[in-house]
Amino acid sequence: MGFWRQLTSAQRDQLAKIGTKVCYEEGDQILRQGAPDRHLVVVLAGVVKVVTSYSNGLQRVLTLRGPGALLGEIAALTALPRTAGVAATSKVTALLINNVEFAAATRADQALHDQVEQALAERLLATNQQLVEAFVPAVLPRLAGLLASLGDQLETAVLPISQPDLASLAATSEASVARSLRALRARGLIRTGRRRIEVIDSPGLRAYAETYDVEP
Fold first, then answer.
1. Which of 62, 109, 173, 189 has the lowest tally of Cβ within 10 angstroms?
2. Can you list the domains of the chain with their CATH numbers?
3. Start-end of H helices in the chain
4. What is the pTM of this model?
């Protein structure tokens, strides 16, 4: 459901008072890996990608996050630098909250503190699911499972993601992604457009994800 939507209206009002609403365009950087800043981000609308960068200059897309997601809380509540960057993959509206004020709010409201812990637990479960899907050897069922999972997590049928980012997320080549998308499109499971993939049949993608030995 997302952190924000699990809060009561009073809790949302409280965080809105101590936060600043900011709008981003597609491609804008929201959080930078390694940055020393300590604010948190709540995605109110739109979709973002979480990206990690390596010393050799390569980047890896780790996941997509949608409305209601809480981001940057680990760096905000510890002395650690940010372990990943966050960029908008669509128009995004976000609430930026100072870490000191957020920590004070969670200390004063045990239910809010519990919701933060639940958000972390749900993120861990989603990460574990992606790891399971990443070990599917054949690219086509791996991609089918990934698209179904992303649709469920973001609670939308339209995924704002480019083929290069999808290849990075699925740990495969752009050529393999292109072939797999053609195969899934031919089976009526998805539609594709510029920087977008529409999930038409999520159960069908799930079923296809279980055919581990299939290649396009």
1. 173
2. 3-119 (2.60.120.10), 131-209 (1.10.10.10)
3. 3-6, 9-18, 73-77, 99-108, 110-134, 139-154, 163-170, 174-186, 202-209
4. 0.86
SS3 of 68-83: the string is CCEECHHHHHCCCCCC
Closest CA to 96 of 46, 48, 49, 40: 40
Q: Phi/psi of residue 87, each to 5°?
A: -130, 150
Nearest in space to 172 (alpha carbons), one of 196, 140, 198, 139: 139
SS3 48: strand
Beta strands 196-199 and 158-159 are antiparallel
Q: What's the rounded Cα separation, in Å, for the pair 43 and 191?
A: 26
Secondary structure (3-state) at 67: coil
Distance CA 195, CA 101 (A): 37
Cβ atoms of 204 and 131 within 8 Å: the answer is no
Place of tokens 């279980």: 210
Q: What is the pLDDT of residues 116-150, one digit of tens each?
A: 888 888 877 777 776 666 666 688 888 999 999 89
Structure token pair of residue 75: 């760096």
CA-CA distance, 142 to 184, in Å (whole number)?
Answer: 12
How far is residue 164's CA from residue 75's CA, in Å, rounded to a whole number? Answer: 28
